[in-house]
Design goal:
This protein has a single domain, classed as Rossmann fold (3-Layer(aba) Sandwich), CATH 3.40.50. Helices cover 42% and strands 20% of the residues. The protein has ten helices and seven strands. It has a seven-stranded mixed β-sheet, with helices on both faces. α5 links the parallel β2 and β3. α1 runs parallel beside α5. It is globular. 35% of the residues are buried. The structure holds S-adenosylmethionine. The site of S-adenosylmethionine (SAM) has 20 residues, from α1 and α4. The site of S-adenosylmethionine has 20 residues, from α1 and α4.
């Protein structure tokens, strides 16, 4: 089976469980507020035409639509998008849902392409980032939300090991989903990043310009405060937005 089909199948299977994590569904009002602030400062003024790639169960599509943007939500997984569609209809939000690969975005002169936690899982990130330049208007914007998921610095692994032991002792369930099957992870050049450098380089090599990096400290803080001490501190990952122009 082709790696993209394996990834689609994996997310279709995960769709029912994905929103159990407050960080995925943004069900925690403080974290949702931190993301709302990030979108307000990084997206163009509403109403902008926004393409959310790898929209999943729609967390940031919904926030953007609530702010008055005209949102198209694209995802490879029908299962994930069905959850997003249900939530949009419960909230009375109109969003255009498209099932398809990130590498083949719908044609349209979007003002902005955004993607949260998608680029790490692309087998060919440069191909997708190049295609997104063609999906935006001449001075269109890119807003990527990513993180150094492997942690940064020499103590990252030790902190994870301590956190895992502490979770067992404290009886805290880790609600993050299971890892990808063997064979998929090896095909993803940006998974396990331990700095923003590879994401910035992928954006640069796809021809985007005026690249800037914005650390999402309020998002990190909102996540850290939710977990019992010291788990939030130990599991904290640098999160950032990479913003660029076409
Ligand atoms: C970690 S989830 C992020 C979902 C959502 N953006 C969020 O922030 O909650 C990754 C999403 O990317 C989607 N995805 C993975 N590979 C894709 C691809 N090649 N094209 C489009 N979507 C893809 C998955 O189906 C999944 O919904």
């Amino acid at each position: 089976m082709d790696v993209r089909d394996q990834i689609r199948e994996w997310w279709d299977d995960d769709a029912d469980a994905y929103d159990v994590s407050p960080g995925h569904s943004l069900s925690d009002p403080v974290e949702a507020a931190a993301w709302r602030a990030a979108l307000l400062s990084l997206l163009p003024p509403a109403p902008a035409r926004v393409l959310d790639v790898g929209a999943g169960t729609g967390s940031i599509s919904l926030l953007a639509a609530e702010m008055g943007h005209v949102v198209t939500a694209l995802d490879l997984s029908k299962g994930m998008l069905e959850r997003a569609e249900r939530k949009a209809s419960e909230r009375g939000l109109v969003i255009d849902f498209v099932v398809g690969p990130a590498e083949e975005p719908p044609l349209g002169s979007f003002d902005v392409v955004m993607a949260r936690h998608l680029v790490w899982t692309l087998p060919a990130p440069a191909e997708a980032l190049t295609a997104w330049r063609r999906a935006v208007r001449d001075d269109g914007r890119l807003v990527l939300f990513e993180g150094s998921w492997a942690g940064e610095g020499p103590w990252a692994r030790a902190k994870d090991a301590i956190a895992s032991s502490a979770e067992r002792l404290m009886g805290v369930r880790n609600d993050h989903h299971a890892p990808y099957p063997c064979g998929v992870v090896d095909r993803l050049p940006l998974q396990g990043a331990s700095s923003p450098a590879p994401f910035v380089e992928a954006v640069r090599s796809a021809g985007w310009s005026r690249i800037r990096l914005v650390r999402l400290r309020d998002v990190e803080w909102s996540i850290e405060r939710r977990a019992p001490w010291p788990l939030g501190r130990l599991r904290r990952r640098p999160r950032y937005a990479i913003v660029a122009e076409s």
